[in-house]
Amino acid sequence: MAWLRRRTLPLAASLSVLWAADAGALDPAAVSEGGKLFQVACAACHGADATGHGPVAPALKTSPTDLTQLATGNGGTFPRDRVIQVIAGERQVTAHGTREMPVWCQRFAPTGSGATAAASIYARRQLERLATYIESVQRAPRP
Fold first, then answer.
1. How far apart are CA 31 and CA 118, in angstroms?
2. How far is CA 119 from CA 105, 113, 115, 124, 125, in A?
3. What is the 3-state secondary structure (H, E, C) of 41-60?
4. Which of 18, 24, 57, 71 allows an S-S link to 78, with CB 3.0 to 4.6 Å?
5. Dihedral (C-alpha) 71, 72, 73, 79: value to the nearest 10 degrees?
C-alpha cells in the first residue's frame, strides 16, 4: 500500500497544480455538451441565446429569467450551486412548474426506488454540464 501512496501523491499534486493554474477556465467539452442540452431542455423558454426570449416566452405568465445576467445579479460571481439546485428541483422556482413535468423528473432527477446509481450519476453530469454552459454565457450588465 505504501508504494501506491508514493506513486499517486506526486500525480495528485501535479494535477492539483494544473487545476489551480486553470481554475478560471471552463471545460470546452462540458460547455459544448451543456449547450446542446440547453437547446433541447431550456431554449424554448429562455431562448437560444439564454436571454429569456424563447419562442414560448410570450405565452408564459412569468417571463423567463435572462440567464446571461446571473453572475451580475450575484455580485459578479456565477451562482453555480444555486443554478444546479434550481434545475434539479431542489430549489423551487414557481415559473418552472411542478417537478412532475417530464422534462424535469426524467432528465434531471432520476431518484426514487427505481433509480439506479448510474442514472443518478448521469443526471448529475448533465446538471454539471448545463451549469457550465450557463456559466459560459454570462455577460456584463446591460446599460
1. 22
2. 12, 12, 6, 9, 10
3. HCHHHHCCCCCCCCCCHHHC
4. 71
5. 10
Q: Do the beta carbons of residue 34 and residue 40 sit within 8 Å?
A: no
Predicted confidence at residue 108, as pLDDT, reads 63
| Contact between 83 and 70 (Cβ < 8 Å) | yes
Cell of 31: 460547455
Residue 37: which of 139, 99, 141, 123 has the closest Cα? 123
pLDDT of residue 48: 97
Task: Report d(CA 103, CA 40) in Å as an integer.
Answer: 10
Q: Where exactly are the structural domains of the chain?
A: 28-136
Cell of 126: 448533465
Rounded Cα gap, residues 120 and 65, in angstroms: 27
What is the sign, positive or negative, of the torsion defined by CA atoms of 51, 53, 57, 61? positive
pLDDT tens-digit readout, 34-73: 999 999 989 999 999 999 999 999 998 889 999 999 999 9
pTM, to two decimals: 0.72
